[in-house]
Amino acid sequence: MFRYLPEQGSEIAPRLDWIHNWITDLSVFFTIAICGAMIYFAIRYRKQGGVDHETPRIEGSNFLEIVWTVVPTIICIWVAYYGIVIYNEMVDVKEDPEKEFVLINAQGYRWAWDFQYQNGKTTTNEIVVPVGRPTKIILTSRDVIHSFFIPVMRVKKDAVPGAYSHVVFTPVRTGEYPAFCTEYCGTNHSSMLANVRVVSEAEFQRWKNDRSDELSKLAMSPVDLGRSLYVDKGCNACHSLDGSAVVGPTFLNLFGSERKFTDGTTTVADENYIRESILYPASKISAGYQNLMPAFEGQISDNEIQGLIEFIRTIDGSQPVPEPVAAEEEDVDLSSLTPVERGERLYREKICFTCHSLDGSALVGPSFKDLYGRKGKFTDGQEYVADDDYIRGSILEPGSEIVEGYVNAMPPYQGQLSDEQIDDLIAFIQSVSNGD
Question: Is the entire prediction scored with pTM above 0.70?
Answer without folding.
Answer: no
